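Need tRNA-uridine aminocarboxypropyltransferase's 3D structure for a figure. Predict it.
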Amino acid sequence: MPAQHAVHRLHAYRQSIATRPYAARGMKVQRCGNCLLPQQICTCSSRKLLQSQTAFALVMYDTEVLKPSNSGRLIADLIPDTHAFLWSRTQPDPQLLALLQQPEYQPFLVFPGDYALPGQQIIEVQPQMPPLALRFDQARTPLFVLLDGCWREAVKMFRKSPYLQQLPLISFHPDTLASYQLRKGQREFQLGTAEVAAMTLAAWGEQANATMLQMWFSIFVEATLWSRSARSPECFARMQALLAEFNAR
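Structure prediction for tRNA-uridine aminocarboxypropyltransferase:
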């Protein structure tokens, strides 16, 4: 099993500064300390690192990293070059600011273009477009910045963070509703963080990695639903089938 990643380390740090235990749904369930799924269905032994030419930076809203329903950690499970930071309105993480300035990276903020400030570059992603990788400097690694929180929190992070407003936006307008079943947003186009990452990988040209991440997300959804549905045999069977397919790839 791969070593602990950035979200594991951020989770441990956030726990260390907490003044009381986080009262998540299902808080009495005995969970794996890494995947945060019930210990009986821990998926850590199936986690594998993919070969990717991309990087991700998760900017997480306060307690988001503590939530068992958070899907941002799934990105770090598979994409080796993934970074994770807690968001602060008044004290941005200096390591995040430094990361955005590193010359080997080309940072993009993945966020709806409707929120772009005047003059901010918007990169529209439409169906059947050629891979975005063909439009940018191949010598620089794309660093996809994702705002990890509920929709209201993500908008707040964007509006209160001038350093994010300077980044070019990768903007999606999906035609179908999100399949994210755990925490629906108020707006129909809101997707789970891992789903957004999978869409971004596909748009960049890494379709195989996008498929793997979407499958890993589906396993996570079924496992979470199993824990919330009196251990439904149907959820367990779907999870096992998806795991078998994921492990075979």
